[in-house]
Amino acid sequence: MKKSILFSAALIALLGITTSSFAQDSKWQRQHPRREQVNSRLNNQDRRIHQERKEGEISGAKAARLHQQDHRIRQEERNMASHHNGHITGREQARLNRQENHVSRRIGK
Question: What pTM value is reported for the model?
Fold first, then answer.
């Protein structure tokens, strides 16, 4: 009985250490400079779309399409990061930036 309790306590302690190290790694990964830059642009474009919609510069349908395109870019960024231990390469960042530029030019037109 004592052995099973000790084993259970050791297992729980090990899981707690492992979980906290994963939490630290994922925090670093989300704050990787290339990912931060891409996600910052996506957040800025999101604000711009909302502002243009609020001001009546674009229709609700166009705003929805632009949000959907931004969502696809964000999903692609997450996908890329999952292949590289939580960061994206410079080439991937450039590709995402080109896609963001395309959406950005369509906001407000």
Answer: 0.68
